[in-house]
Specification:
With 190 residues, the chain is an all-alpha fold. The chain contains 9 helices and 2 strands; from the N terminus they run H-H-H-E-E-H-H-H-H-H-H. The chain folds into 2 domains: 8-37, no CATH class; 42-162, no CATH class.
Length: 190
């Protein structure tokens, strides 16, 4: 017999309407209660991040790297696989109730890792240095330890990044205008 696990918000409605068999109803409730009582997945996320970013030690040195840089050596597939595994950490952060600002920072780490990691040679070296998964677990742990303080700090960081992006965009716009004016004057002098 198959036991369906339902989210808590649907448990009572589905148990009453879709389970006329009393034994099936008790199995639904028991399965849902076990899922709700299961420990948070922070330990599993931490272990995955460790193996992706720092699980392998180079003997005689203090250098550590993980499976993510090794996966990144496979053209095309490797970086996508690393991003998908990092995405699981993001999904677990959502399940654990991380704030939007924390999730945005975590998604930024994953995107930055995937984008730079996709660049041949430079991306492979970058994957050894940038530990996005460990950074994301640290952000998640900080959020779980002090949600309000972490959310405030994350919002400040996101605002700072947005201001930085706007400043860079305005600088590039100004540079583009100056180069265009220079080119027009240079062509007019001919």
């Amino acid at each position: 017999m198959e036991v369906r696990v339902l989210p808590p918000q649907f448990r009572e409605r589905h148990v009453r309407s879709a389970a006329p068999d009393p034994q099936l109803g008790s199995q639904l409730i028991r399965a849902t209660d076990e899922r709700e009582a299961s420990p948070p997945s922070l330990a599993a996320v931490s272990k995955l991040a460790y193996w992706l970013d720092a699980g392998i030690w180079i003997p005689g040195t203090s250098l550590r790297f993980g499976l993510d840089p090794i996966l990144g050596l496979i053209p095309g597939f490797g970086d996508a696989a690393g991003a998908i595994l990092a995405g699981w950490i993001l999904v677990e952060a959502i399940r654990l109730g991380a704030s939007r600002a924390t999730l945005l920072r975590m998604a930024g780490n994953v995107a930055f890792d995937a984008l730079v990691g996709a660049v041949p040679v430079l991306g492979d070296v970058f994957d050894f240095v940038w530990k996005a998964n460990l950074r994301n677990v640290a952000l998640l742990e900080r959020h779980l330890a002090a949600p309000r303080g972490a959310a405030r700090a994350d919002r400040s960081f996101v605002v700072l990044i947005i201001c930085g992006v706007v400043a860079v965009a305005l600088g590039l716009l100004a540079l583009g205008i100056l180069v265009t004016r220079w080119a027009v004057h240079a062509l007019g002098a001919l």
